[in-house]
Amino acid sequence: MEQKEKYLILIHKYITKQLSASEKKAFDEWLAQDPIHQHLLESTESLWESSASYKETYEPDVKAGWEKLSKRINSKSHNDGKTVVLRPSRSRWWLAAAAVLLLVGSLGWFIANDNSPEWITADTAGETIQLSDGSMVTLNDNSVLMYPKRFESTGRVVRLQGEAFFNVTKAKKGFSPFKVETAKADVEVLGTSFNVRAYESLQITEVTVRSGKVSLAGNTNTNEKIILQANEKGALAHNNGKLTVSKDEQLNTLSWKTGKLVFDGTPIKEVIPEMEKFFAVKINWNGVNIKDCLHTDDIVKSDNLKDILESWKTIYNIRFEQNDAGFILTEGKCK
């Protein structure tokens, strides 16, 4: 048995409380090897718990799952002419995609054999898929979208892990609203564009609406939901299920999709965290004296962060150094 198959089975045994003492020892060592292993376990647990088809007696067919996954990765198109984008450029994404396959495909999230689930994984922002109703979905990095090959009149349902921007076509006569399910929340629309941020590592699910109306609700047994309109942001706190609505006043909610950061008189203490996310780098700025300085600038993905910080030497008189962990900023003053 390959190592990947072994740990997929151990994940299943862990969730269903079937691990032996020796298996638990091996499983704990595997979890400690890489933070992505713990992330994968947590994501898999959430998918498992939220599945209406959950059965403790279920036994995964690992071999069949891997064969199915490999065929999809190696195939450029399917019988219906659609291209499915699967670009796991790092080997750990094979494991993540396989876990999704085993849990969602085998548990019957889309039960009919002739309408088996497709999925798209992205480890860089910008992967885009067109759904069968014409809706377009763009994924941020480290995200997974699961969707049916075609929507039935009974519903348009997809499942998201991570972050994605949706541009949803209006529901045709006889079709149900479009629904995005995440580990903790359900988002429902008729026809609109909106962003869903639902990473397992965060303790909050956020929905930002660009056009139309969207409803946001927790997926527990409560009837509480909020209605969001254009330029509003809704949030669901995972710890207590609290729903909140606010105006979306952030200029860079969709910077991962547009490839651009915009700052207009923005305090540096808000600028640096945005730059960290945008460039995926750690910036230690505890030692700077410019946290309340107001900054105006446009930054695009092709810009070099080191060059940007060099310009800050002139603008704010900062000092900085670069190391393996990222950048360290010190000193400085407002202009």
Structure, explained:
- The chain is an alpha+beta fold and 335 residues long.
- Among the domains are: 110-247, Jelly Rolls (Sandwich); 259-331, Phage tail protein beta-alpha-beta fold (3-Layer(bab) Sandwich).
- It is 30% helix and 33% strand.
- The protein has helices at 3-15, 21-33, 35-50, 62-74, 92-107, 255-258, 268-279, 305-316, and strands at 117-122, 127-130, 136-139, 143-148, 156-167, 178-181, 185-189, 193-198, 204-211, 214-218, 225-228, 232-237, 243-247, 260-267, 282-288, 294-300, 318-323, 326-331.
- Strands 1, 2, 3, 4, 5, 6, 7, 8, 9, 10, 11, 12 and 13 form a 13-stranded mixed sheet that branches. Strands 15-18-17 form a three-stranded mixed sheet, with helices on one face. Strands 14-16 form a two-stranded antiparallel sheet.
- A hairpin with a 5-residue loop joins β12 (232-237) and β13.
- α1 crosses α2 and α2 crosses α3 (35-50).
- The protein is globular, with a radius of gyration of 22 Å.
- The termini are far apart.
- The model is unreliable at 51-58 and 72-114 (pLDDT under 50).
Helix-strand pattern? HHHHHEEEEEEEEEEEEEHEHEEHEE
Radius of gyration: 22 Å
What portion of residues belong to β-strands? Answer: 25-35%
| CATH fold topology of the domain at 110-247 | Jelly Rolls
**Name given to the CATH architecture of the domain at 110-247:** Sandwich
The CATH class of the domain at 110-247 is identified as Mainly Beta
Low-confidence regions: 51-58, 72-114
Number of helices: 8
> How far is the first residue's CA from the last residue's CA?
63 Å
* Proportion of residues in helical segments: 25-40%
The class by helix and strand makeup works out as alpha+beta
How would you characterize the largest beta sheet? 13 strands, mixed
- What's the β-strand tally? 18
